[in-house]
Amino acid sequence: MSPTESLYKSLEAAYDHFNTELFNGKLPEVIFTVQRQNGLLGYFAPERWASTKGTKCHEIAINPSHIGSSRVVEVLQTLVHEMVHCWQHCFGKPGRNCYHNKEWAHKMLDIGLQPTSTGHPGGAITGQHMCDLPIEGGLFLDSCNRLIQKSFEIPWIDRLALSKEFTDHLGINVEKLIDTYESPNAEQQMFSAPDSVSVSTTLSKLEDSNSPTLGISSNSFLNMTYADLMPEDAFIAKPVSKKTKHTYICPSCQNKLWGKPDMNVLCGDCGVRFQ
Question: With contact defined as beta carbons under 8 Å apart, do 137 and 129 qualify?
């Protein structure tokens, strides 16, 4: 099986599983795409595709840039979140301009996901931009555990997946890694997570002889990131754009100008050096 086929088959397998268990098998087939878009974990696009025979098909997109630094359960949350949009398009009344309305929120609650506008407990359950949290003992988490027990995995992970916030959390110096990434042997230069999240350490702590997945209980597996599950040299540092302009302010009149670093400029009005 090719890498492309195995990646998309894993998404289809998860979709089919949740469709059966959370939506009574009522959702139609969709076309999956892998899209890198800033600020988006995924999206649902109704009837975005059409066949040469005129048949229309919905699209669900997953952003691979977030998968590596997300917990397994969060990746599955993104998929099911978009599946609820698909359900609402087919059987309900979606909000205007992608607004997450009460009908969407109640369906999320029904299947075991708590909508929240803040990403934390207590947030509003409706809004333009929404997050969600798994409900303990809810249908979603139970279904996730059964999916993992089928040896489900996403077999290919974007190696540029780690965000700056995530590398900061791990104590990785991104600025130091930029030069490494841009070196002539960039493809050979990789960074490793600290020992505290190394694969061998994590697996030994979570080892369970009765587990169906790599000796890890399904619940523990769901709460691990792919950085935990993959070899330590799997990820490469994402280049960060270097700042080329500096903001200078006159301390007297507060006028501003922008220019290259280390400029020596006087304010024509005040005769004071810009800082």
Answer: no
